[in-house]
């Protein structure tokens, strides 16, 4: 393959986005929304509804075409795609990229899929095909497509486990410190929390490094106690008193 062709193939990238005119030909809509488009970025001569099924839209980084522009294409064509998911926080799961333009998380999928297969894959990951409402977002997605191949090796990375965290509770540090992408606490854990993620003490333990055990005389079916202080959460079992229920009512101590 000569260099020219190699460059052409390397730069010939198309990705499904959420735009389609499957419902009424010629009326393009974002996914199932009814609103008319407030922003469009069609390539020259597009949309041209070339075949009867040209009802789904790709964003292209094609050599020889207007960069970042859209084309209508056959919905059953197999191309890569971009999913977008909404977050309550400004943190994205690992493998997703935050768009400061939209406040949403974006991810490229390199498994070539029909438009519907792509949308289904997005939905299975709590997302939908990406939507573009302005130049900023169009540029963002275009930049995102430029990162393809950096880490995917032709495979979608399997890292959908949401190990990011919205806060760093349990982590030590002023205002709590953790890697919000991985959830790991950098400075160790507060009293009552343990592990790399500084999770609350398990199995009725409490205190520094979860090294102490809640009193056997804590009340309730779980006999649970506060992970930091050891105070019984549901009062004391019959015959015992005190925050930690170590004292017998008669004044005897049942320290454990
Ligand atoms: Ca059409
Ligand atoms: Ca077309």
Automatic annotation (TrEMBL):
Residue stretches making up the C-type lectin domain: 1-84
Keyword Membrane assigned: no
UniProt keyword list: Receptor
Superkingdom of source: Eukaryota
Pfam family, one: Lectin_C
This protein's record includes keyword Ribosomal protein: no
InterPro entries: C-type_lectin-like, C-type_lectin-like/link_sf, C-type_lectin/snaclec_domain, CTDL_fold
PANTHER family per UniProt: MANNOSE, PHOSPHOLIPASE, LECTIN RECEPTOR RELATED (PTHR22803)
Protein's name according to its UniProt entry: Mannose receptor, C type 2
Organism: Elysia marginata
């Amino acid at each position: 393959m000569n260099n020219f062709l190699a460059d052409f193939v390397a730069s010939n990238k198309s990705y499904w986005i959420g735009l389609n005119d499957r419902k009424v030909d010629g009326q393009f809509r974002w996914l199932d929304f009814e609103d008319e488009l407030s922003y469009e970025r069609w390539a020259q001569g597009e949309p041209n509804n070339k075949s009867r099924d040209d009802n789904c839209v790709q964003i292209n980084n094609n050599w020889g075409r207007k960069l970042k522009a859209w084309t209508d294409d056959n919905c059953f064509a197999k191309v890569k795609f971009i999913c977008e998911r909404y977050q309550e926080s400004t943190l994205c799961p690992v493998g997703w990229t935050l768009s400061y333009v939209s406040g949403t998380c974006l991810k490229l999928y390199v498994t070539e899929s029909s438009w519907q297969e792509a949308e289904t894959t997005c939905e299975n990951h709590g997302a939908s095909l990406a939507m573009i409402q302005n130049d900023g977002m169009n540029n963002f997605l275009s930049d995102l497509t430029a990162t393809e191949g950096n880490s995917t090796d032709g495979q979608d990375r399997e890292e959908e486990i949401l190990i990011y965290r919205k806060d760093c509770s349990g982590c030590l540090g002023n205002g709590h410190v953790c890697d919000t992408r991985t959830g790991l606490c950098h400075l160790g854990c507060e009293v009552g929390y343990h592990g790399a993620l500084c999770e609350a003490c398990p199995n009725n333990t409490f205190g520094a490094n979860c090294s102490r055990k809640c009193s056997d005389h804590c009340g309730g079916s779980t006999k649970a106690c506060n992970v930091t202080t050891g105070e019984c959460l549901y009062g004391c079992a019959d015959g015992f008193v005190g925050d930690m229920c170590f004292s017998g009512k008669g004044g005897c101590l049942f320290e454990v």
